[in-house]
Amino acid sequence: MKIDKDSYGDLALVFVLAAFAIWACLRFVQPRWLAWTLTAVVWVFAMWQLFFFRVPERRRAGNGKLISSAADGRVVIVDESYEDEVLGRDCKRVCVYMDFFDVHVNFWPVSGTVKYYRYHVGKHLLAFRPKASEDNEHTTAVILTPDGQEVLFRQLAGTFARRIVCYAEPGSEVQAGEQCGIIKFGSRLDIYLPLDAEIRVKVGDHVKAAEDIIASLR
Q1: Helix/strand/coil percentages in the chain, nearest 5
Q2: What is the pTM of this model?
């Protein structure tokens, strides 16, 4: 199993604390059935954290025209929205919400060249709220496709997310379906597309990063 390279420290802390908690349960808790029950709970939590930070192998369905989901999760918004940070125009927007049980590594949604990247300090509102895209801690990256179209990709922190990692570097070439970072704990991914893009998902759909196509460019 491959683990996200930016999560080794988090996992080391989790397993050290889990080992201490298991030792304390077996050493001090009575009756024994309760000690073993608590031990099992701690072990399950540690294994969940290992699962949470894994980087799954995915079939890459996206390219310079087909936009793949950047995250595992549920589509919570499909609409038209004015993007005022970089693009300065109305766009089609698709937002995917990740809960605690989704893989939280992120993948580039389209192939092209990173044209813009910026990290923004912000609040930690519930990630599925519409205002989260403006007020929450987030990153913004714009990818220029081979035929000159711009796709904006935004990682949003949620209530419990306290760290966003993005590998975007202006001028670098990226491929759809390659890992581009991670958001730790419940959070959201927004993708802004040209108005003539064909959206292929609807609110409520569950999508898998890199493998499910959410839109296609004209």
Answers
A1: 20, 35, 40
A2: 0.82
